[in-house]
Amino acid sequence: MVYASRYLRLMSPPMTGPDVATVQGRLRTLGIYRGAVNGTFDQATDTAVREFQRRNGLDADGVVGPETYSLLLPGTTGGRSDHSIAIDVDRKILTLRGPGGRFIKNYPVAVGTPATPTPVGNWNIVQKSENWGGGFGARWMGLNVPWGSYGIHGTNNPASIGTAASHGCIRMHNEDVIEVYNQVPLGTPVRITGTVFTGRILTDGLVGTDVREVQNRLNVLGYYQGDIDGVFGPQTIEAVRAFQRDQGLSPDGQVGPRTYNALQQAYDIALGNRQP
Predict the structure, then answer these.
(1) One domain, residues 131 and 175
(2) How many domains does the chain divide into?
(3) Whose C-alpha in 24, 159, 176, 226 is 20 to 30 A from the C-alpha of 109?
(4) Active-site residue, selected from the candidate residues 83, 167, 169, 173
């Protein structure tokens, strides 16, 4: 399954950050948004997102999730760089190398949770910006992941470094992300490796922690009142079907990529989650 890092949407107070600015900039280029590219997801941004979604045959809910990201943001690799970054999701280490592959330094990082994993693969830094504050900390380096706005950034929660805590982004101590930011240009390759659970299709009779997590989310959303026991049985199936019907999905009672994504979005909205 794939996620969109955090799901951008209209909230009070509004969501802010470089990911919002990226969306605003693209919508402005398309002539749909005429407001300021200020990184604040306000009513004008919401209206523009909904119009973009309508034009592209998407559900015009105003939420920037994986499908909206994939259609909105064009692929790019940026420029060239003689530096490189490697991120080991399992070890939670970022390694910076210089010209000729020369080792420079290792840095501890926080990575995505099992439910919102950091995207493994080969990417490039395509955006750099400073001092967004809050969950983005002192610096932001955006990656060209096609299904969401993922990046390497600072944090206002340094205790999370060394853990699986983010919505898929890579968090660093603010002093560390400034060091890296000052050395790497746009186009710097970023290789992310590691073991990431991306979601098996859940069907009748399966057992596991992924089933428990689905049950927990359905419980929070008011669809499931049974035991959170990790067993995908009749009560869980019926709760999944009820959720799917309300989301306009085929109510087959199975949890595949579209249901996972809908669950994550609904769960984030219910909990008011705005962290990257």
Answers:
(1) yes
(2) 3
(3) 24
(4) 169
